[in-house]
Amino acid sequence: MKRGGRWPLALGAVAVAVVLMSLERPLARAWYRRAIEREAPEERWNAVAQLAARGGAARDVAEEWYLQWLDIPGDTLERWRAVAQLVALGSSEASSHLLAAVEDLDAGVRTRALEILLSVEPSPDHSNDLVRRALAVDPWRLERLALVGRRTDGVVRGLESVVADRAASENLRAAAIECLGLIGGAASSAVPVLEHACDDPALGVRALLTLGRIGSAGVPRLIAALEDDSSDVRLFAAVALGRAGGLAGVARPQLEARLEDPDAGVRAAAREALERITR
Question: What pTM does this model have?
Answer without folding.
Answer: 0.68
